[in-house]
Design brief:
heterodimer; A: 217 residues; alpha+beta; Peroxisomal Thiolase, Chain A, domain 1; 8-stranded mixed beta sheet; 8 helices; 8 strands; 35% helix; B: 89 residues; mainly alpha; Non-ribosomal Peptide Synthetase Peptidyl Carrier Protein, Chain A; globular
Chain lengths: 217, 89
């Protein structure tokens, strides 16, 4: 029996936003080339039908991550409508909050904006997702050169094994200038009755991350 | 600029500074800006202080005055007019 067949935990949904394309699992929801990143994120916000005015006040990392979270968390599954303390969020990226840090530094000649300052930490994204979805469980944000799939699988498997965390939003959310990528996965102890469910392994993480069409083979 | 023009300008600036998804006409000048009004939060309050300082060159001398000054667009306009008059005098 292969490792994948014996994996104790499951990826029940995944989403990717990059190159001005947005996928929920294998489904391409939006493909809009020839526009700026800010415009694409706004297009996606509108396409998802979100009515969340706070989104407009966020920095670009939080805007991007919140949209990706929306793709993997909605609609919520029956299995995962659980106690808020049973939901964890473990994310990573390469550029931390540098996109916003630069904006803040540019403002230092005058009076810098308090609303920009509060986003000069990458884990504020976790806070924004938590506020939006009511999560109160384990949280961590790692700064790594590349997507740390092995680290995430090991770390999150430990959380799930410990017994409090039942489900976890994990993945990568990175933005700097016009370059960005958000790839998130909804991981759980329970396998959902879904064609998209797959064992929580580094192989499956990488397959979704790097597949050009966003599909998982 | 008369008071009416100042009130309209303030509405537009608050929308821009705070990235609000409303139109100037949606803001009632006498309505509370915080809680049940526009629903602004503590970070927005800091942004309004910055707005006052950058645009109108008026510093809030006492932090305790904040809730009174930023109660509504009307109270902000009154505060700006009073302080500009003081400076001019």
């Amino acid at each position: 029996m292969s490792m994948q067949e014996t994996a104790p935990f499951w990826i029940n949904a995944a989403a990717r936003i990059s190159g001005h394309r947005a996928y929920r699992n294998q489904e391409l929801l939006l493909d809009k080339q020839g526009i700026r990143t800010d415009e694409f994120l706004l297009e996606l916000y509108n396409r998802l039908g979100l009515e969340y005015p706070k989104w407009f006040k966020m920095d670009r990392l939080s805007k991007l991550g919140l949209l990706a979270a929306e793709l993997v968390l909605n609609p919520p599954s029956d299995h995962e409508l659980r106690n808020p303390f049973e939901w964890g969020i473990v994310l990573a990226n390469r550029h931390s909050s540098l996109d916003t840090d630069r904006k803040f530094v540019d403002q230092l000649a005058e009076i810098p904006s308090p609303a920009v300052f509060v986003y000069t930490l990458p884990n504020i994204l976790i806070g924004e997702i938590s506020i939006r979805h009511g999560f109160k469980g384990e949280q961590a944000f790692f700064i790594q050169e590349e997507f740390p799939a092995t680290l995430l699988v090991n770390y999150v498997s430990s959380l799930l094994e410990e017994g409090i965390t039942h489900s976890c939003l994990i993945g990568w959310a990175d933005i700097l200038g016009e370059s960005y990528n958000a790839t998130l996965y909804r991981v759980s102890r329970v396998r959902e009755d879904s064609v998209h469910s797959m064992p929580f392994t580094t192989t499956n993480i990488y397959q979704y991350l790097y597949h050009e069409q966003g599909a998982v083979s | 600029m008369n008071r009416e023009q100042l009130v309209e300008e303030l509405k537009q600036q608050i929308i821009e500074q705070l990235n609000l998804q409303v139109k100037p006409a949606d803001i009632v000048a006498s309505d509370p800006l915080f809680n049940e009004g526009l629903g602004l939060d503590s970070i927005d309050a800091l942004e309004l202080i910055v707005l006052m300082q950058q645009k109108y060159r008026i510093k809030l001398a006492n932090a305790e005055d904040g809730p009174k000054v930023f109660q509504s667009v009307d109270t902000m306009a009154d505060f700006i007019l009073a302080n500009q008059t003081t400076q001019a005098g």
